[in-house]
C-alpha cells in the first residue's frame, strides 16, 4: 500500500484543488499532464522520440469537436471517438516510421504530422485559422451538466485518472517488460524471438490513442479546437514537459506538464508575455544540462541516496 | 562426439559483401548435431559477420543456409530464435536496467503467450520466478537475482547472458567470444558452464582463446579474410602450416 500512498495523496489534492484554484486552469493542466504521460510511454519506455504527437492530440481535438458539434454525439462517445481516430492515425504513421531509429524516426513522425497539419488547415470542417468554435460540452453519462465548471472538472479528472492508470498498467505488464527489454537492447530482444517492430507499434498506438484522449478532452473543456493543437510547436512542447518532469518515470511527465502550463499562464499575464518561448527555451537548456533526469527523476535519485 | 553425418546447420557458398568489400566469401560450413564447433580466425576474418548471417541480422549477398535440412536463408531473426537457434553477442547482451531475474524472465515469458497483454499485471509473470532462479543458479548467479544488471561485473553479465539464452531451451546456441575480456577465473567458469550446457545441444562458438577451444571443441573451422581456410579437429587444425601462417605475428 505504501507504494501507492504518494498517488493517493496526489489524487486527494486533485479532488480538493478546484475549491482553491480556477478549475479551467486545472483542467488544462490535467489534459496536458495526460498528453505528456502518453508521450512518455513511447519516449521514456519505448525509447522512440516521436516529433509528431501534436497530430494525435490536435487531430483528436478536431474529431471530437466535430463529433459533438455537428453529429451531436454524447460527450463521452465524442471523446472516445476522437481517441480512436488518433489511435488509427498512430497505426498509420507508426507503420511507416517504426522501423527507423533515432533521428530518422523523429523526422518521419514530424513529416507525417506536418502532412496532417496541412490536411487539417485545408479541410473546411476545422474552420482553418478560426478553429472549430462553439463545441457544446453536453452532459456526462446523460445526466451531469458539464456546463458547470466544477462538474466538468471532476469529469476531466476521471478521464485523467483512467488514462494514467492505463499507462501505469501498460508499463507494469508483461508487454511493458518486453518493451523495456527492447529499449535496453533491441538486438538482444530480437535474438530472444521477439518481433520488436510489433511491440513498438503497439506502444505507439496506445500512446497515440491516449494523446488523442487528452486532446479530445481539452476540446470539450475549452469548447474549441484550434490549429495550435496540431502545430509542431505542440509536439515540441510535450517533449519539453516530459524531459523536464523526468523521462521514463511514471509521474514525471505530469509534473513537467504542470510546471510548463503554470509558467505559461503566469508569464502570459506579466511583462514577460512576449518572451514565453525564450523562457521555456532557457528552462529546457538548464534542464538538459543540470537535471538530466528531470524533476521527478532527480528527486527519486536524492531519496535513493538518503536511504 | 557422435560420429554421424547428421548436420544440424549447413551453409553453401555463403557470401556477404559490404559495398564491394567481401567480408565473408563462399563459406561452406557444416556443423554436426550435438557437437561443440569453433569458428576461429584472426581479427576481422569475418566470424561475427558469419554469425550475423546465420541469425539473419544481416542478409547474405549470395549463398544459402539450412537448419535441420530446412532452408532458412530468408527467415527473420526472431523466427530463427523461435526455431531454436539462439545467439549471444560479442559485446555482452543483457538488459542493463532490469534485474537479473527479470532478464531471464523476458526470455521465459514468450512461451506464456501474454507478451502483448498490456492490460495484465506484471505480477502474472511471477510464476516464472522459480524457473528463472533455477537458471540463474546454473550459472552461479543465485545470489544476484534481485540485482540491477548494470551493476554486475562483466563476467557475471556474460554468465547471465548464457542463463537467458538457456531459458529458451535452444537446440543450437551460437556464442560470440563468450570469454572475451575475462580474467582467468571467469574463463574457467564459463568454459565449464559451456561444457555443462552442451549436453543434448549443438554449440557453435567464436573464440580467440585457443586454450578454451582445445579443451571444449570437437571441431574447428578456420576463417581467413572471409574465406574458409580449413576445418578439422584441434590437433589437425593446429598442425596445419597455413593456420600458423594466418596467425603469425598475432599473439595467439
Ligand atoms: N556493417 C559493416 N559494414 C562494412 N564493413 C563491415 C561491416 N561489418 C563488418 N565489416 C567488416 O567485415 C570484416 C569482418 O568483420 P567481423 O566483425 O566479421 O570480423 P571478426 O572475425 O568477428 O573479427 P573480431 O575477431 O575482431 O571480432 C571486417 O573487416 C569489418 O571491418
Ligand atoms: Mg567478431
UniProtKB/TrEMBL annotation, chain A:
Gene Ontology annotations for the cellular component aspect, listed alphabetically: plasma membrane
Annotated keywords: Cell membrane, Membrane, Transmembrane, Transmembrane helix
InterPro entries: ABC_transp_permease (IPR001851), LivM-like (IPR043428)
Protein name per its UniProtKB record: Branched-chain amino acid ABC transporter permease
Subcellular location: Cell membrane
Bilayer-crossing regions: 6-25, 32-57, 77-96, 103-120, 152-171, 201-226, 238-260, 272-291
GO molecular function list: branched-chain amino acid transmembrane transporter activity
Membrane association type: Multi-pass membrane protein
Pfam families registered for this protein in UniProt: BPD_transp_2 (PF02653)
Top-level lineage group: Bacteria
UniProtKB/TrEMBL annotation, chain B:
Keyword Transport: yes
GO cellular component: a single term: plasma membrane
UniProt-listed PROSITE patterns: ABC_TRANSPORTER_2
InterPro entries: AAA+_ATPase (IPR003593), ABC_AA/LPS_Transport (IPR051120), ABC_transporter-like_ATP-bd (IPR003439), BCA_ABC_TP_C (IPR032823), P-loop_NTPase (IPR027417)
Positions in coiled-coil regions: none
UniProt-listed CDD domains: ABC_Mj1267_LivG_branched
Domain ABC transporter stretches: 9-250
Molecular functions per Gene Ontology: ATP binding; ATP hydrolysis activity
Keyword Transport among record annotations: yes
Keywords for the protein's UniProt record, in alphabetical order: ATP-binding, Nucleotide-binding, Transport
Protein name: ABC transporter ATP-binding protein
Amino acid at each position: 500500500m505504501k507504494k501507492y500512498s504518494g498517488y493517493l495523496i496526489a489524487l486527494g489534492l486533485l479532488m480538493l484543488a478546484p475549491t482553491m484554484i480556477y478549475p479551467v486552469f486545472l483542467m488544462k493542466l490535467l489534459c496536458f499532464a495526460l498528453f505528456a504521460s502518453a508521450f512518455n510511454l513511447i519516449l521514456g519506455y519505448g525509447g522512440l522520440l516521436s516529433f509528431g504527437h501534436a497530430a494525435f492530440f490536435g487531430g483528436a481535438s478536431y474529431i471530437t469537436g466535430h463529433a459533438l458539434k455537428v453529429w451531436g454525439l454524447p460527450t463521452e462517445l465524442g471523446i472516445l471517438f476522437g481517441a480512436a481516430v488518433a489511435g488509427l492515425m498512430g497505426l498509420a504513421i507508426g507503420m511507416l516510421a517504426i522501423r527507423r531509429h533515432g533521428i530518422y524516426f523523429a523526422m518521419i513522425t514530424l513529416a507525417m504530422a506536418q502532412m496532417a497539419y496541412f490536411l487539417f488547415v485545408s479541410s473546411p470542417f476545422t474552420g482553418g485559422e478560426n478553429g472549430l468554435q462553439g463545441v457544446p460540452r453536453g452532459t456526462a453519462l446523460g445526466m451531469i451538466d458539464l456546463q458547470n465548471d466544477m462538474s466538468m472538472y471532476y469529469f476531466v479528472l476521471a478521464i485523467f485518472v483512467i488514462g494514467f492508470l492505463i499507462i501505469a498498467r501498460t508499463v507494469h505488464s508483461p508487454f511493458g517488460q518486453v518493451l523495456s527489454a527492447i529499449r535496453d537492447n533491441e538486438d538482444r530482444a530480437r535474438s530472444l524471438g521477439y518481433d520488436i517492430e510489433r511491440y513498438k507499434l503497439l506502444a505507439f498506438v496506445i500512446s497515440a490513442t491516449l494523446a488523442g484522449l487528452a486532446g479530445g478532452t481539452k476540446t470539450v473543456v475549452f469548447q474549441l479546437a484550434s490549429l495550435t493543437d496540431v502545430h509542431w510547436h505542440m509536439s515540441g512542447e510535450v517533449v519539453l514537459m516530459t524531459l523536464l518532469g523526468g523521462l521514463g518515470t511514471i509521474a514525471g511527465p505530469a509534473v513537467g506538464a504542470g510546471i510548463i502550463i503554470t509558467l505559461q499562464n503566469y508569464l502570459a499575464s506579466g511583462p514577460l508575455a512576449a518572451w514565453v518561448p525564450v523562457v521555456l527555451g532557457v528552462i529546457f537548456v538548464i534542464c538538459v544540462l543540470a537535471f538530466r533526469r528531470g524533476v521527478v527523476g532527480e528527486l527519486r535519485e536524492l531519496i535513493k541516496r538518503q536511504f | 562426439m557422435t560420429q554421424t553425418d547428421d548436420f544440424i546447420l549447413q551453409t553453401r557458398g555463403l557470401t556477404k559483401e559490404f559495398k564491394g568489400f567481401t567480408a565473408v566469401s563462399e563459406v561452406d560450413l557444416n556443423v554436426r548435431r550435438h557437437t561443440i564447433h569453433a569458428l576461429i580466425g584472426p581479427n576481422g576474418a569475418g566470424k561475427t559477420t558469419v554469425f550475423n548471417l546465420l541469425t539473419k541480422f544481416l542478409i547474405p549477398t549470395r549463398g544459402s543456409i539450412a537448419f535441420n535440412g530446412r532452408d532458412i536463408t530468408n527467415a527473420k531473426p526472431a523466427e530463427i530464435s523461435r526455431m531454436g537457434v539462439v545467439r549471444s553477442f560479442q559485446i555482452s547482451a543483457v538488459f542493463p536496467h532490469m534485474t537479473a531475474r527479470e532478464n531471464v524472465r523476458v526470455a521465459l515469458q514468450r512461451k506464456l503467450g501474454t507478451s502483448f497483454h498490456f492490460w495484465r499485471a506484471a505480477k502474472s509473470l511471477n510464476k516464472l520466478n522459480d524457473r528463472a532462479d533455477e537458471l540463474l543458479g546454473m550459472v552461479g548467479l543465485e545470489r544476484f537475482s534481485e540485482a540491477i544488471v548494470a551493476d554486475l561485473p562483466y563476467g557475471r553479465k556474460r554468465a547471465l547472458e548464457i542463463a537467458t539464452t538457456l531459458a529458451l531451451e535452444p537446440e543450437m546456441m551460437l556464442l560470440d567470444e563468450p570469454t572475451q575480456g575475462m580474467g582467468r577465473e571467469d574463463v574457467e567458469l564459463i568454459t565449464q558452464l559451456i561444457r555443462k550446457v552442451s549436453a543434448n545441444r549443438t554449440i557453435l562458438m567464436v573464440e580467440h582463446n585457443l586454450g578454451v577451444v582445445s579443451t571444449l571443441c570437437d571441431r574447428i573451422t578456420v576463417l581467413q579474410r572471409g574465406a574458409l581456410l580449413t576445418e578439422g579437429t584441434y590437433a589437425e587444425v593446429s598442425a596445419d602450416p597455413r593456420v600458423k601462417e594466418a596467425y603469425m605475428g598475432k599473439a595467439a
